[in-house]
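User: two proteins, same treatment. go.

Assistant:
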Amino acid sequence: MGAIIARTLITVAAAVAVAAPVAVAAAAGPVSRPAIKVGPKQDFRGFVNAKNRKAIIRVVCPGPASTGHPLARQTVRAAPAIDPSFPGDGFTGTAATSIGAWLTWPSTVKPPPPVYIATFTSYRAMPIPTGITVPCSGSGQLLFLPAPGSRTVKAATVGLTFTNIGQ
């Protein structure tokens, strides 16, 4: 019985500790939380524009072009995964201290090489570069690859769609 009470108290204390900064933040303005560093043996999740599946990257495509550039103010984010885990979640393995984000999409011609987006050494959001060239429409995937690799590394994936804002 004592063990059950102790676990309950620890759970309640953890909930209060997590909720307290939120209440203070609401009263005093935004509070910056310390960044959690990427390290070995961590489950993590990838996000594109705040979605971890069925994400959309808005693209600016001039005229009848088949490729264009991502619109500004779009983000990718790596975040620690909290249960329950999703099929697209990743694992940093035994050695990773960073996570690279790479954009891929299928092609009927020759598949293009993955396009580098960002490297995370801590869990946070980063902008999608507007200078990269991507399809105006179609599907793609954002891969979050832990580095350095090990046998236990698992990439996180986010399925996405490219949408031309000019149409």
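Protein 2:
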Amino acid sequence: MKTNMRILLLIFAFLVFNTLSVLADAPPDPGGGPGGGDGPVGGGSPIGGSAIVFLIMSLIYGIRKSIIRVKQCH
């Protein structure tokens, strides 16, 4: 009987402490409200240059793979 109570107490304590560790604060205010004078959400990081590099690299990779497949067929 004592061991059952100990096991139940341990399970209860585990569940209580596990539940308390999951609680979190609300996310911070992203800012950027109308007339606030703050920058846009995300910091205004530029993605245009990276997108062009990604597209060029993808194009080169696709051409390379198609050339390899053509050589394997002949």
